[in-house]
Description:
The chain has three domains: 2-122, NAD(P)-binding Rossmann-like Domain (Rossmann fold); 131-165 and 187-257 and 352-390 and 438-444, 2-Layer Sandwich (Dihydrodipicolinate Reductase, domain 2), CATH 3.30.360; 271-348, no CATH class. The chain is 33% helix and 24% strand. The chain is built from 16 helices and 16 strands.
Amino acid sequence: MRNILIFGAGRSASSLIRYLLSKSNEEKLHLTVADLSLNLAKAKTQEHPNATPIALDIFKSDERKKAIENASIVISMLPAHLHIEIAKDCLEFKKHLVTASYISDAMQALNEEAIQNNLIFMNEIGLDPGIDHMSAMKVIDEIRSKGGKMLLFESFCGGLVAPESDNNLWNYKFTWAPRNVVLAGQGGAAKFIQEGTYKYIPYSALFRRTEFLEVEGYGKFEAYSNRDSLKYRSVYGLDDVLTLYRGTIRRVGYSRAWNMFVQLGMTDDSYVLEGSENMSYRQFINSFLPYHPTDSVEIKTRLILKIDQDDIMWDKLLELDLFNPNKKVNLPNATPAQILEKILSESWALEPDDKDMIVMYHKFGYELNGEKKQIDSKMVCIGEDQTYTAMAKTVGLPVAIATLLILNGKITTPGVQLPIKKEVYEPILKELEEYGVIFNEQNVPYFGYNPDLF
């Protein structure tokens, strides 16, 4: 039996483990699932004869090294900053490594050593990053193979609540890390290119500069810009492209509503609020409002945000119970962002029967034989339940498929890498279709821009 060692048995590992166990007999696989919580590892392996759940503290190097030494290949589903020690051990014991995380500088620094040892360190092989890379490179390579020249590439992705579970005014629930949602867009201006001109959107304006998208059968969406759309310009070979934009998908109206929190300062994570532990929700929002001897917190909120009481934006705030004087924050030394996350988590938690949804949308503009053309590629994936979510499927399945391809010698290029080579994306995208992760590509009129206006 070939031993696949998996570090981390959290939410993203469910579909990954299920897939590998379903292949374990025919592929002669044994899974060792290591997590700080033995119960979590046991829950994911479900007493399968080809799996061994173990409790393992990643910071205990002897335990970690022993587990890696006994593995045929290693998967890390831990937080990104924990990958590096695992990667160094994989070099020591000559083991391939697969993660779904962005390539850090520390990971990239191991590239030469990985190549020298003929080891594959596959990263960014989850959803976003991951499926976005693979589905984009497939179409870009096809366009180039025909002699086409890329002019425009726009890519959007979002984790949302499925239509059948969409029952709040925000049309949104937390399907992944709430903290990442609260802090989205911070850390510098969003940067992208339109018609050869660099464009920047400061955080204060980010959620009022949105693009609209239509997905057949699912209606209208909006997208706000990612912080750095140009990160993959050279990686994709798009240094000469005129337009390059990456964004996050939400339902229409979400961004305008979220902007209320931004303008009030409630998403700030840079300072703590005195007395936060005993603060009520009402006191929390009032701490961002000017003093007035007679106006209520509600009136002050509407005045500062310039919204009327019959505006849907007001109803969205009321739905969150933000003005409740009896609910306590109960978080000591908390930042505004941490308090907002707690409040939203009460309203936006997925119910036991709720399903999540992943939406991905690419636009490819190109020139072929003097004619400008465009391909739109769209993918929608609906989760099964709270264990096998759409997020877990789209993150975990590419990791699992890539692991098996590496183990079977189908992916051979060594080094620290992301999945942009044909030997990687072609078989993975093909197999993902069997699991309902399908991209529908359409030829549409070239979107383009009027350069004179930009």
